[in-house]
Amino acid sequence: MLTIDGSKGEGGGQIVRSALGLAVRTGTPVTLENIRAGRQKPGLKRQHLTAVQAAARVGAARVEGAELNSGRLVFEPQAILGGTHEHHIGSAGSATLVLQTVIPALLAADTPSTVVVTGGTHNDLAPPFDFLERVWLPLLKRMGAQIELRLERAGFYPAGGGRVVAEITPGPLSPLTLDARGEILTRRVRALLANLPGHIGLREAETACAALGWTGADARPEHVAADGPGNMVIVEVACAHAHALFSAVGRRGKRAEQVAEQAAAECAAWLALDVPVGPHLADQLILPLALAGGGGFRTVPPTLHTRTQVQTVQRFLPEVAVTLTPEDHEDGPWALRVSRR
Amino acid sequence: MNASTPTRPRIGIGLIGATLDKGGQVKRWSQWRPTVALALHDDLLYARLDLIHQPRDRKLAERVAADVRRLAPETEVTLHPVAIADPWDFEQTYAALADWADGQPLDPERFAYDVHITTGTHVAQICLFLLCEARIIPGALLQTAPPRGDEPAHGSWRRIDLDLSRYDRLAQRHAARAAYGLAFLKAGIATESPTYNALIAEIERVAGVSRAPLLLTGPTGAGKTRLARRIYELKRARHLVAGAFVEVNCATLRGDGAMSTLFGHTRGAFTGAREARDGLLRRADGGVLFLDEIGELGLDEQAMLLRAIEEGRFLPLGADREVESRFQLIAGTNRDLHAQVTQGRFREDLLARIDLWHWHLPGLRDRLEDLPPNLAYELGEFERREGRRVTFSREARAAFLAFATGPDATWRGNFRDLNAAVTRMATLAPGGRIDGPTVEAEQDRLARAWGGAAPAGEGEALLLEALGPAGVAGLDRFDRVQLADVLAVCKRSPSLSAAGRVLFAVSRAQRKSVNDADRLRKYLARFDLQWHTLPWNGAAPGD
Q1: Residue B30: its chain A contacts at CB < 8 A?
Q2: Which CATH number fits domain A184-271: 3.40.50.300, 3.40.50.740, 3.30.70.3040, 3.30.360.20?
Q3: What is the pLDDT of residue B513?
């Protein structure tokens, strides 16, 4: 039984989700302790219980301590069950986080799977569906994964009601090295609007372009169908070898300009260093690369999330070595490398 | 949190808010709806929500339920139509909600309950609060609030557990308040006698809530007057009384003047009544009236007093209209009022009225463990009064305490004697220090005052005890000397016959007397005294 201290490193929900996904994928029983111990409201919350439930279903796992506010979870997976899984998560977390928790395991199932998740698809503090579709998925496909993603309806907080479908055909992952992004091909600003007036999106598109110094970029509001109101600014940069996407969620009481500036600032930080992989993508590539047993990428200085993800992955996959090293100095580009020991 | 001890699943109970939970097709998602927001919090998880709604709000309730199920698929939602004709009517609302609660299989062993009080009328909120407080619904209160500024749409929640014992600081405040009240009643004297402390604790509890009459009995000097005054001051500090403390010793009220002093008179009510006068009862309006030696009060005054206590009104002398006064009565006596009733000297109905809260203050001899703190208190009082600090030398203090708690110290005058002793020693103390010789001189003085060396003194005290100051004042000197000696013998004797044998020993020897006991009984009866009602023979009034 592996024991993971949930208060170490980033100390939040990411450790929980990564550990659950890896436990199912590797068939490793795990005990999570001190879950979110340093947080203002420690322990498992509804969104984490959602992830536990999703992972438990895919892994046919025996679970102990899956309760609200619980600081300790015992999770013993028995199998990897392909087939059809439907998860209704309501307002508890994000559909995209559920997909990222279960997809690595389902790639190793005996049969193809269809995973349907209803709930939020464009939430704060989680990658929007667009990130999965345009950034994460193409890279996984380059690694040999056969995954199709479909957004059937967008879901914004609080109304939710979004629906995503993932079709996964099991197969091995092969190493990938992503060291250069290549020349920038297109720049886009999309201001997603659901049941909100267009002027909000216009202001956001304008503000984001101004903040990035972009002229002539494809920047416009985009009305999407959803049950309640919703707004998200998405800044995308397509390069010859990589795609980057940064987003910020708008909500009542928050100025449209502020939302746009937030997304633009993240993009600007990535543009400033000539690397292909941004901070969020870095977190999400570590696990597939480790499963592939090789490859690597150049990225921005690692966040605490990134470092914690490396540590969690290493606990489950001791046969691979994951290293993170700065190229010249700590504030410049870093390189992540995966190799078999 | 321990994974091996599962927590109880939580059930939420709330009212569908006819206004707050409403909202249009799309617009409702832009509004904060309290009941729906329960399903949005990442740190709130309900196994079930029981939502109560007016039957006419069924459509709204169904939409709310559907939205909750969509946002929290892990939560079961049940709708409970409950008709409340006027949700602003307290009685109707409480009855409807209490009936509903009675019909629910509430099981606090298996489930934790939250009662959401943010929706519904204020009356409904109060009713839910009361139902929780009475544990009819064994749950905590849940208060939710809309988001402020650009906070996320779920807003905030707060769980309020009405079990006061779970709030350390509240419990401490409560205890501190009670402790303050106790210390206050004891005048800050850290008394150790468990019976006395229990008595004071009870007085503190009663005085804090009751406006009913209080009866304090106990020997002369036991501190009745001081305690009455402290009770008043405590009540005033707690804003329970606003009026004055009015104090009178009933033994000083004699004849016609008694009525007028207590109840007042109109101008010309009687000869010499040149001005109208408010009586003491009127002056005590809104405050506390302390009637010491209430056993000395005449029967007419007792009748008037009873009416004044019961009705809050009475008729001043010469007046044709009653006046009102609402006061709390504290009565003091060293007599056995039940015996007085038997003798027809005290009204039974008045006693029944003032006997509800009855405390017997023990004499100093019965709580010698409190002598050291009282000694310190008296010294402090002397210093406060005289502006001069006086202390005991260590040996002198030990010597005084040894004497004061020893067998020779009868403390007949109780705390009054202690006060006098300390005042004398402090006054005579050379250079502000009470030394050995000062204590020795005081011991002699006290022993003379109490002891066999001066039996007359003892007799005088017994007279006072048996008849009260007024009774003693009404004796001829001739009778006083004789009765004093008779009482001294009575006090030392185990029975009427035994006392008779001592008192009539000579006649007995000459076989002149056939029945000593009868002779003594007849003698005592001349002074309205009976053997079994002598203060030291009768059952203690507090028993």
Answers
A1: 228-229, 252
A2: 3.30.360.20
A3: 61
